[in-house]
Each structure stands twice: as C-alpha cells, then as structure tokens.
Amino acid sequence: GGDPDPGCGCLRISRRRNSGGGAGALASLAYGVFLWQLRTVGGRYRTAALCSLVSSAGSAVILFAVPEESGLWWALSLPAAVLELVSVYQECNAHADVLEGLDDRLAGKWRLLWRWKIGLLLGIFGSVLLMLLSVLLSLLVMLAIAVGAIVVAVLQLVYLYRTAKLFRQHCPAALPEHLE
Q1: Which of 7, 12, 138, 144 has its CA 20 to 30 A from that of 162?
Q2: In whole angstroms, what separates CA 109 from the centre of its chain?
Q3: pTM of the model
Q4: Where are the alpha helices (DSSP H) in 38-134?
Q5: pLDDT, average across residues 113-119
Q6: Taking the alpha carbons of 41, 42, 46, 52 in that order, is the dihedral positive or negative?
Q7: CB distance 72 to 63 below 8 Å
C-alpha cells in the first residue's frame, strides 16, 4: 500500500486510499449521462456518452476491485483509457460540428482543445520516459503538465458555457426539454 518504494526513493500512493479516484469516477459518470442527454443534437454525442459511461464504469471497477499489482489492472486500464480518449475526441468534435455555421471560431477552439488534451497525454508519456534520465527534470515536466491540465479544464468549462449559451439563444428547439 503506502510504503515507501526503495527502488525510486519516492512514496507510492495507493489508489484505494485516495478518495479522489472515486469522486473522479462519479464525476465522469455524471458527465457521461449529460452527454447522453445531448445525443439527439448530434450523433457524436451518443458515441461520446457511451464511451464515457463504459470507461467510467470500467475505471470504477478497476479502482475498487482489481489489485494494482495485478496484470489484470493493466489489461483493463488500457482499454478504459482508450475509451476515454475516444469519448473526449467525439465530444470535442460534436461540439465543433454543431457550432459550425453558428460560431466557427468557437468550433475551432473545440477542435484545438482536443489537440491540447492529446499533447498533455503525450507529455505524460514523455515525462515517464524522461524519468529514466532525470527524476528532477521529469517532475518539472509533470508540474508543467499539471498546470496545462488545469488550464485546459478551465478552457473546457468556458467553452461549454459559451456553447450552451449559443444553443439557448439560437437553437432552443434542438435541445432536450429538460436542458433548455
């Protein structure tokens, strides 16, 4: 569990002791339900919702039922991560698709946001590899990635707000009744 790992000199934190993992899984599930409600607006929302819901459910099972040391953890985590990436891709492009012709600038921002998320993911992989050369440099890269992730999350909330505002102003009939 939470014993120091003498191999790298840093603390190993168990996912089960981190309640943030469970809260994150619940938030992701709730967001999947939100995307599902938008499925009538565009087909990509349906795909995004299904991928998000399956990924969230899989992550919750992995979080609470599969030991970290198990090969099964990796075997289940990778497909869940891929599903989450597909969900984010479909979501960003669904927003962009429905905004085209209404607000092309905001549509472009949604597509750029997807690229930023992929860039952050690649940065994480790079920092893990960098750890082989320099732990300190790797930690600095991870700090920059964490800041970038916060910025991207805030941008996503801003874009969601702007997108919802445009929908309410220009396309209220396209939204499900309970989202108007």
Answers
A1: 144
A2: 17
A3: 0.74
A4: 43-65, 71-99, 104-130
A5: 93
A6: negative
A7: no
